[in-house]
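Subject line: Sequence and fold of a protein, written as structure tokens
Body of memo: The sequence and its backbone structure tokens, given next.
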Amino acid sequence: MNKIKIAIFGLGVVGSHVVKLLEKNNYILNQSKFEIVALSAKNKSKKRNFNIKKYNWISHFSELKKHPQPDIVIETIGGTGSYIHNLYKYCIKKNISLVTANKAQLAENGDKFFADFDGQKLFLGYEAAVLGAVPVVRSIEQVSFLQKLTQFMEFLMEQPIISYLKCMVIRLAFKTPLIRP
């Protein structure tokens, strides 16, 4: 079973729901075992719908170095301030993939960050958080499926009969972003 270490930044509705979903499923999703290596939010003393004492609490992403390095950072803080910008840069520098529900950050800086994450062969997953944690969790659950779908589409594109356009139709039918494995 695959083991995936994650750190979650932002524990509002979306971030908290990710933790609850993982707890509910014994930290197993899509045949992968998840380990939460760190949590972070603006206010540690705020009442949560889970026991924060079970997890490593950090007040800044630079404190991640005190814990096992995550494979994925989940960012649900939102906004476009320097903290968010630097968190994304930190992930690239430390070779950590990122899943976000942050529409504003991607709208302002998406081109640069997609290029930087791609350049490091990292995953930058996204989807607007319109149904609580559903979109972010769905992105995490679909990473391996999307990689397999992408590999399949790349195989099809190499075949002389199948055009790039047909592959894009397949991608749109699944309503998935094209990611590189």
